[in-house]
Specification:
By secondary structure, the protein is mostly beta strands. Helices cover 0% and strands 49% of the residues.
């Protein structure tokens, strides 16, 4: 089973009367564990998992059909650099490549037949990375024909590797852990060196970044987190399930999928955010940002605001130096009243500012976190 990190930031939304769920179930047609998903377009994607499972969709997950990679045992990761060229990896050092959209697969040699390979990621058709058991990190510079081991600095399982889209593809992340702690490795040198960050007491199964700032992580018991500042802080999203979630993939900042135990596939069209709004006949007549309550707080506080018109709205948290530490809302929302419960265990004591902004209104208020 892949590893997970329990990231110590939680976030929940409360409603006055009605809600909109950010994630919804799709039917995979299998009860096998599904460990990874990858989409090359909003309609075309693959998931892989237990018992050599490879499923493909061409209609955004409404229907899935089986493909045969020929790989034995469990497949833990899938990655496509184009609609035709992709890779899957799994147990016993298995690496398989396709150049015809999964219709056929050919075996490649990882050089580590005793290792479980949990994740694969390519930055272009030549350069790619694999992580696995024993802190293993492999890099290829020729499309997987040869793999070279890199120094990770850890010996525990690494469950996921991902390089956010960028012009240089220098920045990447690998996550994993042990039975007592979770780890995040970050490289800014295309894998030549990795910086270790220890997080919490548990492991993380999957991580994905839409860009170098916006990312998601998934794990045990339906855990889904998002970050808007490159992983410095994470906010809990509502998944609507309690099964283990093994992989997350976003085609853009809004459209994404998560896969997990018992054939679970979740999809979102709004970045996974769950927002709740007041539905009544008396809509607000003015913009307003309320003072958070309680204030000072530890570890949670409520933030309320209202808008008399539908508009693109943002609600962000900043430290005293003006650094953004969390994005709570960044989307179009109709006129109404809103409330969130901001709950964090990762931020230190101090003064913070929360800012509500629309095209026609902006307001900032101060709050104090006391440990």
């Amino acid at each position: 089973m892949k590893a997970f990190i329990f990231l110590l930031v939680t976030f929940s939304l409360t409603s006055f009367s009605s809600s909109q769920q950010g994630w919804f179930q799709q039917s995979s047609g299998t009860a096998n564990y599904l460990y990874a998903a990858y989409f090359v377009s909003p309609s075309t994607g693959w998931v892989v998992g237990q018992a050599s499972t490879v499923l493909k969709t061409t209609n955004a997950g409404v229907n899935w059909f089986s493909q045969n990679a020929g790989a034995p045992g469990f497949l833990y990761s899938v990655y496509f650099i184009s609609e035709n060229t992709g890779w899957v990896v799994g147990q016993s050092g298995a690496v398989y490549k396709t150049t015809n959209a999964g219709a056929n697969w050919s075996a490649q040699t990882s050089g580590f037949p005793s290792n479980y390979l949990y994740s694969v990621c390519f930055t272009d058709v030549s350069f790619g990375y694999i992580v696995g058991s024993g802190g293993l990190i492999l890099k290829t510079m020729n499309g997987g024909n040869n793999w070279v081991q890199q120094t990770s600095g850890v010996s525990n399982t690494l469950s996921c590797v991902y390089f956010p889209p960028s012009a240089t593809s220098m920045i990447g992340y690998a996550v994993g852990g042990t039975a007592t702690e979770g780890v995040v490795l970050k490289t800014s040198s295309a894998g030549s060196s990795w910086t270790l960050q220890t997080l919490g007491t548990n492991w993380l199964f999957g991580v994905h970044f839409d860009n170098v700032q916006l990312g998601w992580a998934v794990g045990y018991s339906g855990t889904i987190y998002s970050t808007s500042n490159g992983g410095d802080n994470w906010i809990l999203q509502s998944s609507g399930t309690n099964v283990d979630l093994f992989s997350v993939y976003f085609i853009d900042a809004s459209l994404g999928w998560v896969v997990g135990n018992n054939g679970t596939i979740l999809s979102t069209t709004n970045g996974g955010a769950t927002f709740l709004e007041e539905q009544n006949d008396e809509l607000p007549t003015e913009f307003l940002l309320e003072q958070n309550y309680p204030n000072p707080f530890n570890p949670s506080t409520k933030i309320s605001w209202q808008s008399p018109i539908g508009s693109w709205q943002t609600l962000k948290i900043y430290d005293v130096l003006g650094n953004e530490v969390a994005t709570i809302v960044d989307e179009y929302k109709p006129a109404g009243k809103y409330e969130v419960d901001f709950n964090t265990s990762s931020l230190p004591s101090g003064v913070y500012f929360y800012q509500f902004k629309t095209e026609k209104y902006i307001e900032t208020k101060k709050m104090i976190l006391l440990r």
